[in-house]
User: Fold this.
Amino acid sequence: MTAADVKRYTSAVAEASNLRVLGCLPGRACDIAKALGSTQAVIWWPIHRLHKAGRIHVEGWDTSRRGPPAAIWHAGPGEDAPKPVPSRKALSSRAYRRRLAETGELEDIRSRTRNRNATLYHCGKRDPLTKAFFGGTK
Assistant:
């Protein structure tokens, strides 16, 4: 087999995988992989080749699940939808705590939490056998 034959064979295999992916669109990469009975790692190469060639584009982003937004691929040339800015729970929590601190409610919440934890996790007297095995109370 010559180098030209190998190149022709690999391009034919690549085009076949591209056509299989195109038949499953529109959808996310995980949906395409599931439809083809494959894994996402195998599906990413044809998706990347098709996107680079302008044969598919990102129609939108699925943000309904945990993790980063997943691209929803659509057949045909077009403009890619802009990727949404991730919403960070830490940022919203920080802003919430800042608002509570400004009103003075944050210290009240912390003291209530300390009192509740002291009540819930207070360890009373242990029986002598448990004390011998695990030690006494603090």
About this structure: The chain has a mean pLDDT of 79. The first helix runs from residue 3 to 22. The radius of gyration is 29 Å.
